[in-house]
Amino acid sequence: MLLFATSLYGQDSTLLTKNFQFQDGIYLSLEEFQINEPTFSWDEVRASIFTNPQTMLTQISSISLPDGGEDLALDAHLIYAVSIEGVPSIQVKNEEIQKDLATFAALKVRGKICYFGFPTIQKKQIAMQAFNPMNGRPFRSSMIEREQEVFVEKMLNFETGEIQSFEVTNFLKWIQDDQDLVKTLTDLSPAEQKKKLFKCLLIFDDRNQLYLTK
Question: Whole-model pTM?
Fold first, then answer.
Protein backbone atom coordinates (compact mmCIF):
# COMPACT_ATOMS: atom_id res chain seq x y z
CA MET A 1 0.00 0.00 0.00
CA LEU A 2 2.91 2.35 0.76
CA LEU A 3 4.38 1.77 -2.70
CA PHE A 4 0.96 2.33 -4.27
CA ALA A 5 0.47 5.63 -2.42
CA THR A 6 3.94 6.81 -3.41
CA SER A 7 3.21 5.98 -7.03
CA LEU A 8 -0.05 7.98 -6.98
CA TYR A 9 1.68 10.99 -5.40
CA GLY A 10 4.29 10.95 -8.14
CA GLN A 11 1.61 10.88 -10.83
CA ASP A 12 -0.41 13.78 -9.38
CA SER A 13 2.44 16.09 -8.41
CA THR A 14 5.25 17.87 -10.22
CA LEU A 15 8.40 19.40 -8.74
CA LEU A 16 8.46 23.17 -9.15
CA THR A 17 12.01 23.88 -10.35
CA LYS A 18 13.52 27.31 -11.03
CA ASN A 19 12.95 26.88 -14.79
CA PHE A 20 9.64 24.99 -14.59
CA GLN A 21 7.54 25.38 -17.75
CA PHE A 22 3.94 26.34 -16.99
CA GLN A 23 1.00 25.51 -19.23
CA ASP A 24 0.46 28.33 -21.70
CA GLY A 25 -2.66 30.37 -21.11
CA ILE A 26 -4.44 32.77 -18.77
CA TYR A 27 -4.79 32.22 -15.03
CA LEU A 28 -7.56 34.19 -13.35
CA SER A 29 -6.62 33.18 -9.80
CA LEU A 30 -3.67 32.23 -7.62
CA GLU A 31 -5.28 28.83 -6.98
CA GLU A 32 -5.30 27.97 -10.69
CA PHE A 33 -1.71 29.13 -10.96
CA GLN A 34 -0.66 26.95 -8.02
CA ILE A 35 -1.94 23.79 -9.74
CA ASN A 36 -0.75 24.84 -13.20
CA GLU A 37 -4.23 24.78 -14.77
CA PRO A 38 -5.02 27.98 -16.73
CA THR A 39 -8.60 29.19 -16.97
CA PHE A 40 -8.24 29.73 -20.71
CA SER A 41 -5.69 28.62 -23.26
CA TRP A 42 -4.54 31.22 -25.77
CA ASP A 43 -6.53 29.39 -28.46
CA GLU A 44 -9.74 30.15 -26.56
CA VAL A 45 -9.33 33.94 -26.56
CA ARG A 46 -8.65 36.84 -28.86
CA ALA A 47 -5.94 39.03 -27.38
CA SER A 48 -3.65 41.87 -28.30
CA ILE A 49 -0.44 41.41 -26.34
CA PHE A 50 3.18 42.50 -26.49
CA THR A 51 6.23 41.13 -24.67
CA ASN A 52 9.37 43.22 -24.35
CA PRO A 53 12.29 40.79 -24.78
CA GLN A 54 14.64 43.04 -22.77
CA THR A 55 12.48 43.66 -19.71
CA MET A 56 10.42 40.45 -19.97
CA LEU A 57 7.29 42.50 -19.35
CA THR A 58 4.08 41.50 -21.11
CA GLN A 59 1.27 43.99 -21.70
CA ILE A 60 -2.29 43.20 -22.72
CA SER A 61 -4.18 45.96 -24.49
CA SER A 62 -7.32 43.92 -25.19
CA ILE A 63 -8.65 40.43 -24.59
CA SER A 64 -12.00 38.82 -25.31
CA LEU A 65 -13.80 35.49 -25.54
CA PRO A 66 -15.47 34.57 -28.85
CA ASP A 67 -19.20 34.25 -28.10
CA GLY A 68 -21.14 33.35 -31.21
CA GLY A 69 -21.17 36.36 -33.51
CA GLU A 70 -19.83 38.75 -30.86
CA ASP A 71 -16.84 38.79 -28.58
CA LEU A 72 -17.21 38.93 -24.80
CA ALA A 73 -14.66 41.47 -23.54
CA LEU A 74 -12.58 40.52 -20.51
CA ASP A 75 -10.95 42.93 -18.08
CA ALA A 76 -7.22 42.22 -18.36
CA HIS A 77 -6.65 43.83 -14.95
CA LEU A 78 -8.52 40.90 -13.35
CA ILE A 79 -6.02 38.34 -14.68
CA TYR A 80 -3.65 36.96 -12.04
CA ALA A 81 -1.01 35.50 -14.34
CA VAL A 82 -0.26 34.47 -17.91
CA SER A 83 2.13 31.94 -19.38
CA ILE A 84 3.73 32.31 -22.81
CA GLU A 85 5.97 29.55 -24.18
CA GLY A 86 6.15 28.07 -20.68
CA VAL A 87 7.34 31.28 -19.00
CA PRO A 88 4.89 32.45 -16.28
CA SER A 89 4.31 36.15 -15.56
CA ILE A 90 2.23 37.65 -12.78
CA GLN A 91 0.41 40.96 -12.93
CA VAL A 92 2.07 44.01 -11.38
CA LYS A 93 0.03 46.81 -9.86
CA ASN A 94 -0.27 49.78 -12.23
CA GLU A 95 0.79 52.26 -9.57
CA GLU A 96 3.99 50.30 -8.96
CA ILE A 97 5.07 50.09 -12.58
CA GLN A 98 3.64 53.39 -13.83
CA LYS A 99 1.73 51.86 -16.74
CA ASP A 100 -1.96 52.04 -17.71
CA LEU A 101 -2.23 48.68 -19.48
CA ALA A 102 -2.36 45.39 -17.58
CA THR A 103 1.32 44.49 -17.21
CA PHE A 104 2.86 41.16 -16.24
CA ALA A 105 6.41 40.51 -15.00
CA ALA A 106 8.09 37.18 -15.73
CA LEU A 107 9.01 34.92 -12.81
CA LYS A 108 12.70 34.53 -13.55
CA VAL A 109 13.06 32.04 -10.69
CA ARG A 110 10.31 29.58 -9.82
CA GLY A 111 10.14 27.66 -6.54
CA LYS A 112 8.88 27.97 -2.99
CA ILE A 113 10.07 31.57 -3.25
CA CYS A 114 9.81 33.05 -6.75
CA TYR A 115 11.71 36.07 -8.01
CA PHE A 116 10.71 38.78 -10.47
CA GLY A 117 11.63 42.36 -11.22
CA PHE A 118 10.72 45.28 -13.43
CA PRO A 119 11.94 48.78 -14.33
CA THR A 120 9.84 51.74 -13.32
CA ILE A 121 10.05 55.49 -12.89
CA GLN A 122 10.29 56.95 -9.40
CA LYS A 123 10.47 60.54 -8.24
CA LYS A 124 13.45 61.39 -6.03
CA GLN A 125 14.62 64.47 -4.23
CA ILE A 126 18.08 65.51 -5.41
CA ALA A 127 20.27 68.19 -3.83
CA MET A 128 21.38 70.85 -6.33
CA GLN A 129 24.01 73.50 -5.63
CA ALA A 130 24.78 76.83 -7.29
CA PHE A 131 28.47 77.79 -7.43
CA ASN A 132 30.16 81.18 -7.36
CA PRO A 133 31.98 81.50 -10.71
CA MET A 134 34.66 83.64 -9.07
CA ASN A 135 35.88 81.16 -6.48
CA GLY A 136 34.04 77.94 -7.37
CA ARG A 137 32.42 77.71 -3.94
CA PRO A 138 28.75 76.75 -3.49
CA PHE A 139 26.65 79.69 -2.31
CA ARG A 140 23.15 78.21 -2.55
CA SER A 141 21.61 74.75 -2.41
CA SER A 142 18.09 73.41 -2.82
CA MET A 143 16.22 70.14 -3.23
CA ILE A 144 14.58 69.50 -6.58
CA GLU A 145 12.43 66.60 -7.75
CA ARG A 146 13.68 64.44 -10.58
CA GLU A 147 12.36 61.29 -12.22
CA GLN A 148 14.72 58.32 -12.28
CA GLU A 149 14.42 54.85 -13.73
CA VAL A 150 14.94 52.21 -11.07
CA PHE A 151 14.78 48.42 -11.13
CA VAL A 152 12.36 47.01 -8.58
CA GLU A 153 13.04 43.49 -7.27
CA LYS A 154 10.22 41.40 -5.80
CA MET A 155 9.70 37.92 -4.39
CA LEU A 156 6.55 35.81 -4.38
CA ASN A 157 5.65 33.18 -1.79
CA PHE A 158 4.22 30.54 -4.11
CA GLU A 159 2.21 28.83 -1.34
CA THR A 160 0.47 31.94 0.00
CA GLY A 161 0.64 34.42 -2.90
CA GLU A 162 2.25 37.05 -0.66
CA ILE A 163 4.57 39.49 -2.44
CA GLN A 164 7.35 41.45 -0.77
CA SER A 165 10.34 43.51 -1.84
CA PHE A 166 13.38 41.32 -2.44
CA GLU A 167 15.46 42.60 0.45
CA VAL A 168 17.62 40.91 3.08
CA THR A 169 15.23 41.66 5.97
CA ASN A 170 12.17 40.33 4.15
CA PHE A 171 14.02 37.29 2.82
CA LEU A 172 15.24 36.32 6.30
CA LYS A 173 11.63 36.36 7.57
CA TRP A 174 10.62 33.94 4.83
CA ILE A 175 13.41 31.38 5.35
CA GLN A 176 13.11 30.73 9.09
CA ASP A 177 12.57 27.03 8.36
CA ASP A 178 16.15 26.87 7.04
CA GLN A 179 18.21 27.98 10.03
CA ASP A 180 21.50 26.97 8.41
CA LEU A 181 20.88 29.44 5.59
CA VAL A 182 19.68 32.06 8.06
CA LYS A 183 22.98 31.77 9.94
CA THR A 184 25.02 31.86 6.73
CA LEU A 185 23.30 35.06 5.60
CA THR A 186 23.32 36.84 8.97
CA ASP A 187 27.03 36.13 9.45
CA LEU A 188 27.84 38.17 6.33
CA SER A 189 28.49 41.89 6.26
CA PRO A 190 25.63 44.09 4.93
CA ALA A 191 27.50 44.54 1.64
CA GLU A 192 28.05 40.80 1.24
CA GLN A 193 24.43 40.09 2.14
CA LYS A 194 23.20 42.22 -0.75
CA LYS A 195 25.78 40.73 -3.09
CA LYS A 196 24.87 37.12 -2.28
CA LEU A 197 21.13 37.50 -1.69
CA PHE A 198 20.10 36.12 -5.08
CA LYS A 199 22.42 33.13 -4.68
CA CYS A 200 20.88 32.45 -1.26
CA LEU A 201 17.44 32.44 -2.89
CA LEU A 202 18.54 29.75 -5.33
CA ILE A 203 20.03 27.72 -2.47
CA PHE A 204 16.81 27.99 -0.46
CA ASP A 205 14.63 26.82 -3.35
CA ASP A 206 16.96 23.88 -4.02
CA ARG A 207 16.87 22.82 -0.37
CA ASN A 208 13.14 23.41 0.16
CA GLN A 209 11.47 21.73 -2.77
CA LEU A 210 7.85 22.41 -3.59
CA TYR A 211 5.48 20.22 -5.59
CA LEU A 212 2.49 21.28 -7.67
CA THR A 213 -0.30 18.93 -6.62
CA LYS A 214 -3.59 18.58 -8.45
Answer: 0.83
